[in-house]
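Sample entry (198 residues):
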Amino acid sequence: MRKMKRPKILRPSTLAVLLSALLLTGLLGCGSSAQSYVKPMVDFSYLQRTAVLPFQNLTRDDLADERMQSVFITELLSAEILEVSDPRETAAALLTLGIPNNQALTPEQAVALGKQLSVDAIFSGIVEDYGFARGGLDRSPEITLVLALTETETGSIVWRSQVHETGSSFWKRIFGGSPDDIYEVSRETVRKALGTLL
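Predicted structure, serialized as tokens:
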């Protein structure tokens, strides 16, 4: 009768190294990244009323800009910090001033639009990625969003944030969890961006 081999017991130091490596891999594989800029010496407390421009769309999904703008406005209103101009009023003001809604504002245009809408600042957004990650078996949502806030007194950008978010993670792939749907990823993307400002 063959004797069973005794299981190898990892030394504490070896176990610690393996756990650290696993944790690091998990952090690197979380599928999320963010960068933000806040203009120094800016008093954001004076901001009371804002407008949200139609988002720009750099993706293959023709409705990505409208979907992300809708999620953004909802999250902004939910924060109950800023009053938001009705998007229809913003669209009408852009038309009145002859400002294209698919490009960044010049400082002069930002000032003029601020006066037209009686807003203290203007949010803009660019949807860079919106869809599902390519390759592999993991069809998880993937979104990259750039947001900016322009104050309307001088037309200068006072805040900018870029967030990349996916619906999967290292832990979900290891333990067989389902990726978040694209709506939840959209909300998380917007929340992470606004979290650097509000």
